[in-house]
Amino acid sequence: MNALRQQVRFCRAIDGARIALATLGCGLPLLRAAHWLSHVEFDARSPVWAHWLRELSREHTYVRYDQRGCGLSDRSPPTFSFEAWVSDLEAVVDCLGLKRFGLLGMSQGGAIAIAYAARHPEKVSHLVLFGAYARGVLRRETTPQQRHEAAVLLDLIRIGWGRDNPAFRQVFTTLFIPGGTAEQHKWFNDLERTSASPENAVAIVETLYQLDVTSLAEAVRVPTVVFHARDDARVPFDEGRNIAALIPGARFVPLDSRNHVLLDTEPAWPHFLYELRAFLGSSDPQSPAASRPLKAAGLTPSEHEVLALLARGLDNGAIAAALRKSEKTVRNQVSAIFSKLEVRTRAQAVVRAHEAGFSGRST
């Protein structure tokens, strides 16, 4: 895959660690807090992350950075502590001179984002949490079997992380993207070894097991939305619900998926994008600019939703799943849209949607 056009630079953390960061797109900044298994250069060619990068940079300056010990950041930092991770986020914000921005926390990055938002509410316009957790595995009410499983995963890292044979790393890949293709699984297996050494991976995971930002979550006072896949094999669904209950006023959006990282082929992906853009106030799918040319046609808000997903190439079944409607209802709404727009085919409707400012499907 061709790498997306991004700018990569470096900044220094307070303890001197070098942190690699990448910016992509233009518009209001959306900053992703770091999580492990990242490599800002390698990810830009990814069949797993490319659709995330394209869509999140469509209307924003999307900022990512590699966690210390991972990717292009320093592989031998002074520490892997949680406080250092939060400090690294602060260093990235200062390096870019960001005054106010949307903050995205995925997986372990959710805890980092929660800590930052609690300490710097004046900086964070919107907090988006995806597949996140406030408590590490060993800080939850776990069973002996779950604690044993956590220890076994650490042993798998120690034994097989650096081997040419990906069999050990495949365990983690299956937890992260069980619904992935063979190509996506192979890429994720390679990412694991490329992003971090076995020693760093162990140190990071041991730190993750002990995370607990429960009190910080209760102190967050910024608009927050929490997304979580119902059948996430990596982070339990209840952990997402727990965060949403802890953060005052947070909205919880369940997603029908079993992947920890959403893939662009599943209905949960357009559902997530629609809810995200509505929360961030992006122009897709229903800004005044996008809606104005279609107002004369008399489309209802519900029909606008359907048209936005139709413009992304989704069929009726996928649209129904994304909007939680019956396929019959969507079919009737598509017919009504055709009539109001005075078109006969989906292709003609998509052209009208693009002319009105709706974003099409990434290619």
Describe this structure in words.
This protein is 45% helix and 13% strand. The protein has 15 helices and eight strands. The protein has helices at 50-56, 82-96, 109-119, 144-160, 167-176, 182-195, 198-209, 214-218, 237-246, 268-280, 288-295, 301-310, 316-323, 327-341, 346-355; strands spanning 7-12, 18-24, 28-32, 60-65, 101-106, 124-130, 224-229, 251-255. By secondary structure, it is α/β, with parallel strands linked by helices. The chain has an eight-stranded mixed β-sheet, with helices on both faces.
- Structural class category: alpha/beta
Order of helices and strands: EEEHEHEHEHHHHHEHEHHHHHH
Rounded radius of gyration (Å) = 21 Å
Could you report the average pLDDT, rounded to the nearest whole number?
89
Largest sheet properties: 8 strands, mixed
How much β-strand is present in the residues?
A: 5-15%
- Enumerate the strands of the largest sheet in spatial order, edge to edge or round the barrel: 1-2-4-3-5-6-7-8
Described by the principal axes of the CA atoms, the overall outline is globular
Low-confidence stretches: 283-292, 359-363
Strand segment count: 8
Produce the secondary structure layout:
Layout: E1 7-12, E2 18-24, E3 28-32, H1 50-56, E4 60-65, H2 82-96, E5 101-106, H3 109-119, E6 124-130, H4 144-160, H5 167-176, H6 182-195, H7 198-209, H8 214-218, E7 224-229, H9 237-246, E8 251-255, H10 268-280, H11 288-295, H12 301-310, H13 316-323, H14 327-341, H15 346-355
Parallel strand pairs: 3-4, 3-5, 5-6, 6-7, 7-8
Antiparallel strand pairs: 1-2, 2-4
Helix pairs in contact: 2-3, 4-5, 4-7, 5-6, 10-13, 12-14, 13-14
